Amino acid sequence: MSKKLSITETSIIPIAHAEAPANEPENEEALAEPEDLKPQIEEECGETTACKPLKHHLEECARRVEAGGTDETCAEELLHFMHCVDHCESARIIASFRGIFVWRQVKDKDVPKPNFALSGKLVAETNSYNGVVLKYFEPPEARKPTKRWRLYVFKGDKEIDILHIHRQSAYLFGRERKVADIPIDHPSCSSQHAVLQFRQITTTDDESGEKLSEIKPYIIDLDSTNKTFVNNNPIPPSRYYELKASDTIKFGFSSRDYVLIHDELDDGNP
């Protein structure tokens, strides 16, 4: 049995360190070298809203492999998780490099030790839109749907709107109209409440061994205050939840129901 796959042992991006000046006296009272921030950054990125579901899938796969009775390698799960962490981590690593460069300039001038903590604004600007920091970015398997999906919006028994959601791979629901693809104005809803994400899922046919791919709709709750509901059941936050045709979605305490339908269902196909 191979060693259990450990996410924390996976090194995703190498970190570079500034070289010490030649002939520097050992007893020189100088500023302390900035600490290696990579392990902390890597851990924080793995717990972000976007990466946490992928981390969960990887851990579940690792447990299945350890239990035996499967030929899974977890390679696909690891690749997706690494891609997500890499996207998050790269901006923060660049920020730490800048801190090391400033450290050298300050050290040469022999002035009081500066604060090299990462700037929240610097990190935030790498994942923002219309001046709003985004809580979510799409995974590698994001795809535009091949079926013409729609959301029928009901308030009580009355249909009040039809939303066509086949033109892009993801739709953000929330009260923040600067970034929301589908605004939801009820005060119980969060500014960035949830995302409906279309993902290309690959499975293996048990009989033929053929690889089969299908683009399916999922919803992920972005740690909202008052939850997201599918068929009146709350879904767990920060995890992709697969949706089926005719599912009903609700956000917070809003009285609006969003019923998921596609054209093939209208024709009698599942």
UniProtKB/TrEMBL annotation:
InterPro entries named in the record: Cell_Proc_Reg/RNA_Proc (IPR050923), FHA_dom (IPR000253), SMAD_FHA_dom_sf (IPR008984), Ubol_cytC_Rdtase_hinge_dom (IPR023184), Ubol_cytC_Rdtase_hinge_dom_sf (IPR036811)
GO cellular component, one term: mitochondrial inner membrane
Keywords from the UniProt entry: Electron transport, Membrane, Mitochondrion, Mitochondrion inner membrane, Respiratory chain, Transport
Keyword Mitochondrion: yes
Pfam families assigned: FHA, UCR_hinge
Residue intervals of the FHA domain: 171-235
Protein family per UniProt: Belongs to the UQCRH/QCR6 family.
Protein name as catalogued: 7806_t:CDS:1
